[in-house]
């Protein structure tokens, strides 16, 4: 028997999309976030993403700021040119380059292009094939404390999700039972994902990175609930 197996897992990691080089502002806003949900940030693995930055940022100082708040930076995406030696010194992984920022074309340029390129004949429509949707995963048993259940697409659970359990899905999560643990839907950024359950008693719910942490039972509705994003904010409705 082999000593170990290597497996590619689908484990969500918090990304800190850095939008300013002002470390004092970052520190203040992190402190405010942590005050809202202190347990959420204890030994929280995170990745820095610098795609939004035009100027160089002090990576070692940012690393220390996050460590002071209990976070565990593990890597950098869209690293800047002077960061490559620092990544090795700080023992941070290089997650490569992400998608380039979209170039915004001024309105005047768009109008001129439209006049110049206006077609004289009607072109045949271009038909594009959509990527097949990820399969729905059906779990027919309760999810016990300490267990983690992950699905590429939608996830349907027939049974309770216990305190200390965690369920994650690239799509929506539907629970035919109480939700007492953590449920994270749209973990790849699907903002149309939803979470529904027969009794909301959760520790945490999240959709596409937007989360709500329940500090005590008084925040629970203990009712059938639907959770979805509305203008980028989590909205919880009783069913």
UniProtKB/TrEMBL annotation:
Domain Septum formation inhibitor MinC N-terminal: 4-73
Pfam families per UniProt: MinC_C, MinC_N
GO BP, one annotated term: division septum assembly
Keywords: Cell cycle, Cell division, Septation
Gene3D superfamilies: 2.160.20.70, 3.30.70.260
Coiled coil start-end: none
InterPro entries: CAP/MinC_C, MinC, MinC_C_sf, MinC_N, Septum_form_inhib_MinC_C
Top-level taxonomic group: Bacteria
Septum formation inhibitor MinC C-terminal domain sequence ranges: 140-236
Subunit structure: Interacts with MinD and FtsZ.
Family as reported in the entry's similarity comment: Belongs to the MinC family.
Name the UniProt record assigns to this protein: Probable septum site-determining protein MinC
Organism: Oleispira antarctica
Upper lineage: Bacteria, Pseudomonadati, Pseudomonadota, Gammaproteobacteria, Oceanospirillales
